[in-house]
Specification:
Shape: globular
Number of helices: 10
Largest sheet: none
Distance between the termini: 37 Å
Number of strands: 0
Strand content: under 5%
Length: 228
C-alpha cells in the first residue's frame, strides 16, 4: 500500500499498529475519527511528508524513502521524533527492562546476577553516549542550519562517519536471557523480558534507519542549498 496524506489515519494504524508509538512521540492523540493523515497532521502542526517517511520505515522492511517526499519535507519533525524517541528509550523502556531483569534474576546466584547487571549497565551507558552525541552535536547543528545560523564547520558527513552500531550488547543480553539463565527463572517472566528486548531491538533498528535514510538525505539537501 502506498502511504499518502489522503488515506485515513485509522487505516494506516490498521496496516501497522506499531505506529501508535510513532503518534505518541509526535504528540498526536488518539480520537482522530475518520480524518485523513493530512488532516490530522495539519491539526497537530506536523509535516505530513516527514510523518509518512517515518511511518514508511516502521511499516516496510525494504522501505526506500521516495525522493519527491524527501525533497518536499523538512527535518524539523524528524529531529523532534528522534529526540522524543531518545527520551522514550532512556526514561521508559530501559527503566522497565531493568526492573523486569531484576525480577527475573531473583532466583539466580550472585555471579549470574552480576553478569546480567553488568551487561545491562554497559548497554545503557553505550546507548546514552550514542544519544548524547546526537542531542549535543547533531540536532543543534540541524536546527542551526534551518535557522541560517553559524555551525562551526560541522557537516552531516561527520555524523555518518561516527554513527556507530548500538545493538551488539543488547544482542548479547538477549542471548544470555534466552540461552544461559538457569531453569529456576520463571518462564513467563523470561518470555516477557525477551519480548521487550526484541521490541527494543527492532525499534532501535528503525530509529537508525530514520537517521540514515531520512534525516541524512534531508540535511544533505540543506547543506547543498546553503553552498549555493
Amino acid at each position: 500500500m502506498v502511504l499518502s496524506p489522503s488515506m485515513k489515519l485509522a487505516d494506516l494504524i490498521e496496516l501497522n499498529y506499531a505506529l501508535l508509538s510513532v503518534l505518541s512521540r509526535l504528540g498526536i492523540d488518539l480520537g482522530f475519527g475518520e480524518h485523513t493523515v493530512g488532516e490530522v497532521c495539519a491539526s497537530n502542526g506536523v509535516d505530513p511528508g516527514a510523518f509518512l517517511l517515518i511511518c514508511g520505515v516502521y511499516t516496510y522492511d525494504d522501505y526506500v524513502a521516495p525522493n519527491d517526499l524527501l525533497k518536499s519535507s523538512g527535518p524539523t519533525d524528524v529531529v523532534k521524533y528522534l529526540h522524543k524517541s531518545h527520551s522514550f528509550y532512556t526514561n521508559d523502556e530501559l527503566k522497565r527492562l531493568e526492573a523486569s531483569l531484576e525480577e527475573l534474576v531473583k532466583p539466580c546466584d550472585e555471579k549470574q546476577k552480576t553478569v546480567i547487571r553488568r551487561f545491562f549497565s554497559e548497554y545503557r551507558q553505550e546507548l546514552e553516549n550514542h544519544f548524547a552525541y546526537e542531542e549535543d552535536t547533531v540536532f543543534p547543528y540541524v536546527r542551526a542550519l534551518l535557522a541560517g545560523e553559524p555551525h562551526d564547520g560541522y557537516s552531516i558527513e561527520q555524523f555518518e562517519e561516527n554513527h556507530s552500531s548500538i545493538d551488539e550488547k543488547l544482542n548479547d543480553l538477549k542471548n544470555i536471557v534466552m540461552k544461559y539463565l538457569p531453569s529456576v527463572c520463571d518462564t513467563v517472566l523470561r518470555n516477557r523480558v525477551l519480548y521487550h528486548i526484541f521490541f527494543l531491538e527492532d525499534d532501535l533498528d528503525r530509529h537508525t534507519l530514520i537517521e540514515n535514510n531520512v534525516l541524512v538525505p534531508m540535511v544533505n539537501r540543506l547543506e547543498e542549498n546553503e553552498k549555493r
